[in-house]
Design a protein that fits this description.
Elements lengths: L1 H17 L14 E8 L2 E8 L12 E5 L4 E13 L7 E9 L12 E10 L19 E13 L1
Antiparallel strand pairs: 1-2, 1-6, 2-3, 3-4, 4-5, 4-7, 6-7
């Protein structure tokens, strides 16, 4: 669980810093990689992703399924959110970012699946140090980071 928290936290921090929705999905062999647990239309998968958003694919690289199935996913849309849950009756969305590949026209004739992963913890795990916070929000507040990615799944 600690490594999952660390991975999701790293993903969130890079996402916020880069503002690109997700750190690139599985790229060149020499790129640093991590595994990411995803639920794709109800199926539990583990996907190997690249931890760098730099390069010619700019985060739109293919994610390789390494557990729970076979094949790979070609991302077409990313949505990330961070929600402060201090007041469970009135959660506050602190960050939402959406990015669509090719202006929404990428792979539009192919069937897509929606994948997501979430992590909860102190808000400070999910944001860069020094990030300005709204009034009444603290780094120690309970928060949820959610990543949703729409992909074209290939065998």
């Amino acid at each position: 669980m600690h490594s999952r928290t660390k991975s999701i936290g790293a993903l969130a921090a890079i996402t916020i810093t880069v503002g690109a929705g997700i750190v690139g999905l599985a790229g060149r062999a020499e790129a640093a990689q991590m595994t990411l647990p995803l639920t794709c239309d109800g199926q539990q998968l583990t996907v190997r992703v690249n931890t760098s958003n730099a390069g010619p694919n700019g985060g739109w690289s293919v994610g390789q399924i390494v557990d729970g199935g076979t094949g790979h996913g070609i991302p077409t849309k990313f949505i990330t959110t961070i929600v402060d849950n201090k007041d469970s009756d009135n959660p506050v969305t602190l960050f939402t970012f959406e990015r669509v590949k090719g202006g929404g026209h990428a792979n539009q004739n192919q069937p897509k699946v929606t994948c997501s992963t979430s992590e909860t913890g102190a808000l400070g795990k999910f944001i860069e140090p020094g990030t300005p916070l709204p009034r009444g929000i603290s780094l120690s507040d309970p928060a949820t980071f959610t990543l949703t990615v729409t992909v074209v799944r290939q065998p």
